[in-house]
Amino acid sequence: MQIENYQIEEHNSQLQADHRRRFDFAASEVPGAEQIIEKLVKFQVAIPSWALGTGGTRFGRFSGGGEPRNLEEKMEDIGLLHKLNRSSGAISLHIPWDIPGNIASIKALAAQYELKFDAVNSNTFQDQPNQAHSYKFGSLQNVDKAIRKQAIEHNIEVIKHGIDLGSDALTVWLADGSTFPGQLNMRKAFQNTLESLQEIYEALPDHWKVFVEYKAYEPNFYSTTVGDWGQSLLFANKLGPKAYTLVDLGHHLPNANIEQIVALLLMEGKLGGFHFNDSKYGDDDLTTGSIKPYQLFLIFNELVEGMDARGMDHATGLGWMIDASHNVKDPLEDLLQSVEAIMLAYAQALLVDRKALAEAQAESDVVRCQEILQGTFRTDLRAIVAEARLRAGGAANPIKLYRDLKVREKLISGRGLKTVATGL
Ligand code: PSV
Ligand code: MN
Ligand code: MN
């Protein structure tokens, strides 16, 4: 299934008058609209290969039909997203769910869909068929050296797949930890994990990065060996300059101040990657911006401020990715919504009057500080984001066009109603 240029053009011309009216108004209200648009056009958010199928909960999974059955079809889906919004030009693979068969043809497909290969992800949280040792009691932390070795070798294997595809980062998320007090010697678990990560680090090509992702709990419910940003930063600092912390928005304890975490990691030059999603209770993996859009804006506000302070390029300075999936929406529509929410929060952060905010902060004028941030957050920038998408060749209203073209129905008729994507 492919969306043709003429279909985008027809759709855009139908919506043109309405868009123009809204854009002209927004541009007249927004200082520096052109610079914001330029930055939005460059900004790309990677799509994880595991977000394209309907997610589940431990109670059940309700397939939406037409889910991608292999890596080629996952790339086809991301190609559709990117065609519609021009901001989803990268895919993040998870090995072994996405073992690339014929590298040349996978690369050709990526070129056809204009996709880059983002960070590759290892998986030592599930046992694979024919695996010699089980990860039931952890992988890189395991008390058994042979199990650690197996997990290290898997990560090195993942790096090799990434090299073949032209990726330049490895993301390690570990389920390692303990579920009951006393189960684990926490110091030894940390040291084993560090030694294992050091061996993986040695296998990284010079220009590569490794992202150490933390998560407070789940699947372990008493301790997690990389449980928070402090632990991740300890690993990243001990590993060396190619190691960074990865922040997943859903991986904190309730009410954690993620914007502050982001600000400090950036200050230390140790923020490497970002996983977007939203949550009400835990690692809910809901559509980005669906629950706490103001928090998303505050996080972007720190990201923009901190990246500018370090002279980092917004588009390439960090690994940007969505990490979400759930039970009830069409995954492609959900991803379009997530990308839109990210672009909107980014645009809002670019609009913050930094000089005025710095002055208000210097005077401890708390009311003015809040007025500045909330005034920006409440400015409607949707037409600015749409204009950036249009200038990049995308659709004025991606979800409307997706529905008008009956993309899901076509995917179902091509792939079948009962397909299951490999992944979570
Ligand atoms: C598990 O919580 C998780 O969502 C992590 O965030 C990883 O990034 C992802 O799964 C894929 O392994
Ligand atoms: Mn994640
Ligand atoms: Mn998660």
Overview of the molecule:
By secondary structure, the protein is an alpha/beta fold. It has one domain: Divalent-metal-dependent TIM barrel enzymes (TIM Barrel, Alpha-Beta Barrel), CATH 3.20.20.150. Helices cover 48% and strands 10% of the residues. Helix 9 packs across helix 10 (331-351). The longest helix has 25 residues, at 5-29. The two termini are 24 Å apart. Alpha-D-psicofuranose is lined by residues 121, 173, 213, 215, 248, 275, 283, 323. InterPro entries: L-rhamnose_isomerase (IPR050337), Xyl_isomerase-like_sf (IPR036237).
Low-confidence stretches: none
Shape: globular
Work out the count of structural domains.
1
The share of residues in helices is 40-55%
- Which ions, cofactors or small ligands are bound in this entry? alpha-D-psicofuranose, manganese (II) ion
- By secondary-structure content and strand pairing, the structural class works out as alpha/beta
Rounded mean pLDDT is: 97
